[in-house]
Amino acid sequence: MDQVPGSPQEPRDAQGDNGLPGCFRHPDRPTGIRCTRCDKPICPECMISASVGFQCPDCVRSGSGRAAQTTAPRTIAGGTIAADPRLITKILLGLNVAVFVAVMATGGALSPLVNRLDLVGLAAEPGGYHLVGVAEGEWYRLLTAMFLHQQVAHIAFNMLSLWWLGPPLEAALGRARFIALYLLAGLGGSALSYFLAAQNQPSLGASGAIFGLLGATAVLLRRLRYDMKPVLILLGLNLVFTFLWPNIAWQAHVGGLVVGAAVAFGMVHAPRDRRALVHVATCAVTLLAIGAVVWVRTLQLVG
């Protein structure tokens, strides 16, 4: 969510609605990085790599810090600093909207596209059920269901949340790690929904991934020692809404939240000298755990 621009002299710990402070030179840009010399929040454009962490342009110009020109700037998770910290968020938002338009154009909730891509394990028939979808080996539905929405209110809420939570995380983690976080959180939500929900009831939506971003935001704020009250209040309200509102797949929300928080923890707490290894291991173990959950549930249904 955009902030109202202020002067460069505003308090350096001023917090935006998303819990992250604005850059001291660009207050409308939330950031999770601070200058290692003066502790001012700095956005990717203002970051200058130093021997330890990043420094702001003021410290470098004044000679209070020495920039390391041979090292490319990195995010707190070791990702490459991007000129546009919203690019992946925009792409994900565009994919969700494009699929929604395609669904509406081909019949809405009764669209053959929905029937081929939503998350389902059993189908009702006279005298019982028969296996369909994921239970028949169509594991791709765990991914494609993340980009399906049937109602305007549903996609509007999810995309607003994505636009609000995505850019700060994308800037703090880097593009590749942000993509991994989003997809793994969505898959985690799909897996838990497949494992626990009624298997003859289709499930779809990006809510699992969105809850993953909420969990990741909480982990990031704690790592940076920022005020966690705004995100915890938001998370609490969303969980209350999840369990009280009818026809919501709470399993997907909880699964996405747990996976998103776990993956983010591995990303932002990895030792600097083994960062890449820890990140790959975190994502690999998470993916294996998701696969195991789906495999066990499929065996239960087949048996």
UniProtKB/TrEMBL annotation:
It is found in: Membrane. It is a multi-pass membrane protein. GO terms for biological process: proteolysis. GO terms for molecular function: serine-type endopeptidase activity. Residues 137-268 form the Peptidase S54 rhomboid domain. The keyword Transmembrane helix applies. The chain crosses the membrane at residues 91-110, 147-166, 178-197, 203-221, 228-246, 252-270, 277-296. Residues 1-25 are annotated as: Disordered. Keywords: Hydrolase, Membrane, Protease, Transmembrane, Transmembrane helix. One of its GO terms (cellular component) is membrane. InterPro entries: Peptidase_S54_rhomboid_dom, Rhomboid-like_sf, Rhomboid_protease_S54. Its EC number is 3.4.21.105. Belongs to the peptidase S54 family. This is Rhomboid family intramembrane serine protease. It comes from Streptomyces auratus AGR0001.
